[in-house]
Amino acid sequence: MSWFLRFFAAILALFIFRPSDAAVASFAPSGEGLRFRFAVISDAHLEGNNGDKHDWMGEAFRDLSAASDSAYDALVMLGDNTMNGQLFEQGMLYGLMRKYCTVDTVLMAAGNHDICGSDYNLANYDRLKKRFIRYNNAFTDHEIDELYHYAVVDGCYFIVLGSDRDAGVAQYLSDAQFAWLEGVLKEAAAGGNPVFLFSHWPLNDVFPDVWAEGHVGEQSEQLKAALEACGSRIFFFSGHLHMGLYGDERDYKTEGQITYINVPSFGSENTNGGVLQDTGLGYSVEVYGEEVVVRVRDLVGHAFTEYTYRFAY
Length: 313
Hints:
Elements: H1 2-16, E1 36-41, H2 51-64, E2 74-77, H3 87-100, E3 105-108, H4 112-115, H5 125-139, E4 149-153, E5 156-160, H6 175-191, E6 195-199, H7 220-230, E7 234-238, E8 252-255, E9 258-262, E10 281-287, E11 291-298, E12 303-312
Parallel strand pairs: 1-2, 2-3, 5-6, 6-7, 7-9
Antiparallel strand pairs: 1-10, 4-5, 8-9, 10-11, 11-12
């Protein structure tokens, strides 16, 4: 079955995207002593009938593959990777990824558009979840059996959370996912390294003025308590809000050992907050010995913006 999915995706990639004539110059990290580097994209909303989004995604994968000196060690796609979770949309996404992206470790998070039923995908949560996992395992080396999973990069845990049922625009974490998370956080704490946590949904009280319903939901306090109890330095990346960027501390919030970082929508208009509302934005994250540097990059225009955030750990 995997060979058929790969063949199907390759055919789609061949016809939906032609690379631009724009040169994609290689680029080095911003400082000395880099441990590793990874990229984060959220809310690509790849859609069957939207050619612009096909082009943006293809250019982004070209951009991610142009880094020099220290190539990206990982790419995290933070959910709502597709608009409707359709077979066609999954095929386009992974076809473009397979053809143009050379990042070895790719971690896929699921958002509500990927796994929640709608009039446009003719499927329910269970079917969409199986589809998400099937495509992930056919096209990435990071095989999963649940929507929550983790990988270890240079000793640092990359933890991806999911939703265990269709909760609309909110998230639902089962008892099994909470138990799994607490176990993984305990393992991560033993290593003494920062932890990178990825979830499509932010906690309720982090960016509350943007979109009141666009958060974890009823389990937000329980999730926050689990994260605070582990004692690790955590960087929590979330999307979903389409709030764009302000270019300052409104894009993130640090409470104790946890820094919450908003990721703008890559593929749909950012209308819910910030002054920088362009599509095509993603993060290039550099991890040094005592600092995490988050650089905002225009992945479609192949250039860094003026915005950079620095966090000690």
